[in-house]
């Protein structure tokens, strides 16, 4: 794939400064770009790279005033990052091999249906009673149980497992190896100290525009539904236990675990390796920093929480600073004790 | 599936108060139940829901005295929760599509055998020299290596991988995507700073009634066996390294990791995201709270441990409380220092 | 497989003390070994087991002086552990069923090639435009996307997923269920609070001699490459985000997570459940203890770091000791305050 800078500028509605005939074959970050690459500059912090980059062309803002001569050809457009993102999307569509139709052998139960424009990869498995929409892509080794519903334009990646009765909305992405809807970790203790599995008859509901990361696990509800609401993005290796609810447009980073029946509000951000206890709730717009532990319900919106017994992150950071000098602090208390006036004699 | 309340009461050996002809089509929690649902009330804490629930019927104790009129029909039985669990099991059996026989294409080495009543899903793989018992269910994309033994009534879910020489008991469940018996993380440092893999010739043994969670990983032993003893329940995304031993009826929640050669006693409970160092042991009946780190052997039975360098959880919680006000505590020490009597002049 | 002690000593170039005709059928640790086992003694700490072991034979150093009579036959060689490792390798090769050729059904795109000596397991999938070297083993249910390159003697285990454009060197091992090269967790926040996926057009590069653990996840770069350099060993359930770089001969234990664009130096050791923030770097030869959190760049080589806001591990351990007695420390401050001299009256 090769285009001239002039062709790209034309598509983006931008103006060219420099050699419009220069050839571009790929996209790169401005700090890493070499010959043949097209980069962008949106954040002023990166401007120094403009004068050192090996890129053949750089997309910049019309307002940018050059402080030095530059070697790459410039394309000036009003929103450089947005323009670059469009090129990324175009590049991805052009380079990824589009797959449609059915590769053999693939398995689909006779009572299941799938809409037009679908892909069913070799060794994909679809059980009975499933209803899959249009342009649904089922990659190789994906497993779809019985009575699963998947909306239009959703993608189930290689080796993802969607257990029976799961409901998936439109434009969802379930990445490779994710397990959605398997039985939750519910066991009733018996008189002799052993445990007996409690039947899990609920399901998982992923609303529209949800993304589930690679090798993440989402358990079905004991009864009712484990729910990930519209637009929520769940990263790799995240665990969502039975009956968890994740709010709209909430983002959860890798390796975070949410215990049974916990509820995360809308527009929350949970960083990586966070843990959240069962049956507690997080208010909307809560931010939780990496490795924090949420043990109690948080009712006030918009807080930032930190720490393994999480509380306000600024307070936590101040406490962390003192924690480092605890041995010295203890020694200072010892010194004070030694230096105390002798107790008055009676 | 639709039954009358009277039919259900008859099966459970209970008595009906209200409309015995009301139709029930599903099971639900009392706080979420709507028309057509059957719920139960076992815990007095939930009694208020009895007067507001939308359930068509609720299973209650014979002793329950109503404080208000109720709209659902009541079924009175001596153990409401136990009765409800029986219905859950019945519901699950009735709604889950039972699979038996072999879906094609499936692969099984000629020297392997499987007992009566089995299921081998499409795209399941069984190597050579395996001996699988009766009523063993092997779901699609499951991988079974060579010389694996699996006892009667065990279930290997979709995409689970059971490596060669693994021994699995009766009534075990290995959930989707779990990896059992792969080579452990054993590398010998070389003189040049590189590492060389140490051959791992041991195996994994899962005794009877063990459950392994989705995408959990259990490494084989370097020599000998990594062992999960009878009735232990391991949750999703848990890591058990080479030569680990997990005691009988011990429960380990999601994302916990146990390093090589560590031993967990019987009847222990490890919460989520716990870490345990290599070669240490936990006494029987130890409880470890979420995100704790166990770095040393614990010999006294029955303790509750907390913290990333774990110690007694009550002591830990008191320390956590003071941790939050460390900046103020330090300031109080500064004030004391300022306020000290001047040292006596010599 | 049965050998006499004399035969084994002959192969190892060692001398026999005791019954050279004794039969050995397996390898075991000296503390666990029973009749028919061959064990080794390399570490003086384990010498007491030499006098109690049930092993039929033990490999020991020529220098070892017996303090008591021993029951096993001894094989004396100059490097007992090295000799034993050779036997481990031999044992593993002899007992693991070597697989070559293609098991049916397997899928490979017409434009892909694979070298001599390969294995393609049943239900393995290889897309278009892939170039796989000699003696490459692709186990059942492995998924290889498009344009993937894999060097000679590399092994892709059961159900591992290698996404398009990944480059894998020679002698690499990707264990069961690992996901390499799936889209990173990159989302652009929109004006309405929702998120839009940023196309991820980069790839993953695993250099020679890299090992990736079971169910680990390694995201492709947004642009450019996520790189794991020569000889690095990555354990089970580890998460490496987009554009991460892991240095040569670095070891990362299970369940550790490295956020986007972070860089780990050469010869580092990260223990289990470590978290590392995005865009930070670790100097060469850094050691990070279990469950630590790295939030800032570490420039000085050779440090050992501990704690969820990680700092020097000795300092951390001293602070942890005081942390446990924080309630008492606070009480001592209260006592000091009570005992202060009254402020002087003006």
From TrEMBL, chains A, B, C:
Identify the catalytic residues. 242
Describe the location of the UDP-3-O-[3-hydroxymyristoyl] glucosamine N-acyltransferase non-repeat region domain by residue ranges: 23-89
One cellular component GO annotation, for this chain's record? membrane
Provide an example Pfam family for this protein: LpxD
Residues making up the signal peptide according to the UniProt record: none
* UniProt EC number: 2.3.1.191
Provide the reaction this enzyme catalyses: a UDP-3-O-[(3R)-3-hydroxyacyl]-alpha-D-glucosamine + a (3R)-hydroxyacyl-[ACP] = a UDP-2-N,3-O-bis[(3R)-3-hydroxyacyl]-alpha-D-glucosamine + holo-[ACP] + H(+)
Question: Pathway, per UniProt?
Answer: Bacterial outer membrane biogenesis; LPS lipid A biosynthesis
Tell whether Transmembrane helix is among the UniProt keywords: no
Uppermost EC category: transferase
Classification via InterPro entries: Hexapep, LpxD, Trimer_LpxA-like_sf, UDP_GlcNAc_AcTrfase_non-rep
Keywords, A to Z, come to: Acyltransferase, Lipid A biosynthesis, Lipid biosynthesis, Lipid metabolism, Repeat, Transferase
Q: Which Gene3D superfamilies match?
A: Hexapeptide repeat proteins, MurE/MurF, N-terminal domain
Q: One GO MF term, please?
A: N-acyltransferase activity
Could you mention a single GO BP entry for this protein?
lipid A biosynthetic process
Similarity comment text for this entry: Belongs to the transferase hexapeptide repeat family. LpxD subfamily.
Q: Which NCBIfam families match?
A: lipid_A_lpxD, PRK00892.1
**Subunit structure and binding partners:** Homotrimer.
Return the HAMAP family for the record.
LpxD
Q: What does this protein do?
A: Catalyzes the N-acylation of UDP-3-O-acylglucosamine using 3-hydroxyacyl-ACP as the acyl donor. Is involved in the biosynthesis of lipid A, a phosphorylated glycolipid that anchors the lipopolysaccharide to the outer membrane of the cell.
What is this protein's record name? UDP-3-O-acylglucosamine N-acyltransferase
- Gene that this sequence comes from: lpxD
């Amino acid at each position: 794939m090769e285009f001239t800078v002039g062709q790209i500028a034309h598509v983006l509605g931008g103006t060219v400064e420099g050699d419009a005939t220069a050839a571009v074959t790929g996209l790169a970050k401005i700090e890493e770009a070499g010959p043949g690459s097209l980069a962008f500059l949106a954040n002023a912090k990166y401007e120094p790279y403009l004068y050192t980059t090996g890129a053949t062309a750089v997309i910049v803002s019309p307002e940018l005033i050059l402080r030095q001569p530059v070697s790459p050809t410039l394309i000036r457009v009003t929103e450089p990052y947005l323009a670059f993102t469009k090129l990324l999307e175009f590049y991805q569509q052009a380079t990824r091999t589009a797959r449609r139709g059915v590769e053999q052998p693939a398995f689909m139960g006779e009572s299941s249906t799938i809409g037009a424009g679908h892909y069913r990869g070799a060794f994909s498995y679809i059980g009975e009673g499933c209803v899959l929409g249009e342009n649904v892509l089922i990659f190789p080794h994906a497993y779809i149980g019985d009575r699963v519903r998947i909306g239009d334009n959703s993608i189930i990646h290689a080796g993802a497992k969607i257990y029976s009765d799961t409901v998936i909305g439109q434009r969802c992405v379930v990445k490779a190896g994710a397990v959605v809807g398997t039985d939750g970790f519910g066991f009733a203790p018996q008189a002799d100290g052993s445990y007996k599995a409690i039947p899990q008859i609920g399901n998982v509901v992923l609303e529209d525009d949800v993304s589930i990361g690679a090798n993440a696990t989402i358990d079905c509800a004991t009864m009712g539904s484990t729910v990930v609401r519209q637009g929520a993005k769940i990263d790799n290796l995240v665990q969502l236990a039975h009956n968890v609810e994740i709010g709209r447009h909430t983002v959860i980073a890798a390796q975070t675990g949410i215990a049974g029946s916990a509820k995360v509000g809308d527009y929350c951000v949970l960083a990586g390796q966070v843990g959240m206890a069962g049956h507690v709730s997080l208010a909307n717009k809560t931010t939780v920093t990496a490795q924090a532990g949420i043990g109690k319900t948080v009712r006030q919106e918009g807080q930032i929480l930190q720490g393994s017994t999480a509380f306000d992150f600024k307070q936590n950071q101040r406490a962390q600073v003192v924690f480092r000098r605890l041995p010295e602090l203890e020694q200072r208390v010892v010194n004070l004790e030694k230096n105390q006036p002798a107790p008055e004699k009676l």
